[in-house]
């Protein structure tokens, strides 16, 4: 593929770099990459990959754009809320460069289709946020013999690593042979994320990809750690070569088998809990109260003890005027000070979704032999939906 006259003007600023030149640009134009996940990491990675002149870009994401995405997923906008993220990202890239060849794939990546979807591309970018997909992508990259540029970000921190690069580059299983428990694999919704952090990691993923394609990468396995609040912000850890005993890329011991036959969700301990659904479960109603019933209890202005067990930072975002704040860890560590002086006063516990409140209510009931201690079903999310639509949802 030759460059057009407009390409010389578009890509001239990188073509004049030592070690890059016209050969580097031609390598990019003849290369193909696939980005799995068009979210916080995928959007900045895609933006710079598309701007650099990659010849073919695949975007795999079956999710839809939501308003909460716009804080960090910079290719999406208010007009594309509700659209598939892959399609929204493709539209944004086409606005940058109408000549880009883009494959917008809106089906979920699964063990059954991973090999066929990823095989046409030279490099795979893991811009996802869940362990089952990370292991699936790593195993697939090993089978296909392709580099995997993997990023992760949460709160104020992120990390970057290129797996399966060169003859001895380790795979994801080499570093993380055992996945975290599902309840410990927090999402951005649960843990929070600073949007600029995903931008930094996503841009670094694009940079690593460009270095590999143009021959500028030294191929040494390195894990890069980033923390927005630390000084220095970046730290690099040299990694060992692939483990001979690794069940995916090693040469010893038992192998993992055929990818299409692996249950990656089961391997990772089951599906990540749907905390919102769990918080809404109306089991043990003897110990739980619906938000409308809580509203009636507040309106009657009778004696009540309402405790909000969210973290302080969330309590300061919004809270019910009638509530007092006691962080969950503080209440569970020593519940007795937080019982009402009159044990006959009903005590209600509220949190964001209705899960932490169940733990707190159980701790108080363990001390109290009479009276009412109940947690609020669905928490403040349910309060906003069913009682007060003006109450903020975050």
UniProtKB/TrEMBL annotation:
Q: Which GO terms describe its cellular component?
A: cytosol
**Ranges where the Rhodanese domain occurs:** 300-392
Residues that bind Zn(2+): 171, 174, 246, 249
Molecular function terms from GO: adenylyltransferase activity; ATP binding; metal ion binding; thiosulfate-cyanide sulfurtransferase activity; URM1 activating enzyme activity
Listed binding positions for ATP are: 40, 61, 68-72, 85, 129-130
What keywords is this UniProt entry annotated with? ATP-binding, Cytoplasm, Metal-binding, Multifunctional enzyme, Nucleotide-binding, Nucleotidyltransferase, Transferase, tRNA processing, Ubl conjugation pathway, Zinc
Q: What is this protein called?
A: Needs CLA4 to survive protein 3
Q: Which organism is it from?
A: Collybiopsis luxurians FD-317 M1
- Name of encoding gene: UBA4
């Amino acid at each position: 593929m030759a460059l057009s006259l407009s390409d010389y003007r578009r890509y001239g600023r990188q073509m004049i770099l030592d070690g890059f030149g016209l050969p580097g640009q031609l390598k990019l134009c003849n290369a193909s990459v696939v980005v799995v996940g068009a979210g916080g990491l995928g959007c900045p990675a895609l933006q710079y990959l598309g701007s650099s002149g990659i010849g073919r870009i695949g975007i795999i994401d079956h999710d839809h754009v939501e308003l909460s995405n716009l804080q960090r997923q910079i290719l999406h906008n208010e007009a594309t809320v509700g659209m598939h993220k892959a399609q929204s990202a493709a539209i944004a890239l086409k606005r940058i460069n109408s000549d880009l060849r883009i494959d917008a794939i809106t089906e979920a990546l699964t063990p059954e289709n991973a090999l066929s979807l990823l095989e046409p591309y030279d490099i795979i970018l893991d811009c996802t946020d869940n362990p089952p997909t990370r292991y699936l992508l790593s195993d697939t990259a090993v089978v296909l013999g392709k580099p995997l540029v993997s990023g992760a970000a949460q709160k104020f921190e992120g990390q970057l690593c290129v797996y399966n690069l060169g003859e001895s580059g380790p795979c994801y299983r080499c570093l993380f042979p055992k996945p975290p428990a599902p309840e410990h694999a927090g999402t951005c919704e649960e843990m929070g994320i600073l949007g600029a952090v995903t931008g930094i990691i996503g841009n670094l993923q694009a940079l690593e990809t460009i270095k590999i394609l143009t021959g500028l990468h030294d191929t040494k396995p390195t894990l890069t750690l980033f923390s927005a609040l630390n000084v220095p912000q970046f730290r690099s850890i040299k990694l060992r070569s692939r483990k001979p005993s690794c069940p995916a890329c090693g040469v010893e011991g038992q192998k993992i088998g055929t990818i299409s036959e692996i249950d990656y969700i089961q391997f990772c301990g089951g599906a990540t809990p749907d905390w919102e659904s769990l918080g809404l479960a109306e089991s043990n109603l003897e110990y739980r109260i619906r938000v409308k019933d809580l509203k009636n209890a507040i309106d009657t202005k009778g004696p009540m003890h309402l405790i909000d067990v969210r973290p302080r930072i969330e309590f300061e975002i919004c809270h019910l005027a009638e509530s007092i704040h006691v962080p969950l860890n503080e209440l569970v560590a020593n519940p007795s000070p937080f019982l009402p002086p009159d044990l006959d006063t009903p005590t209600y516990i509220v949190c964001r979704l209705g899960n932490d409140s169940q733990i707190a209510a159980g701790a108080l009931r363990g001390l109290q032999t009479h009276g009412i201690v109940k947690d609020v079903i669905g928490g403040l999310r349910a309060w906003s939906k069913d009682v007060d639509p003006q109450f903020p949802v975050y």
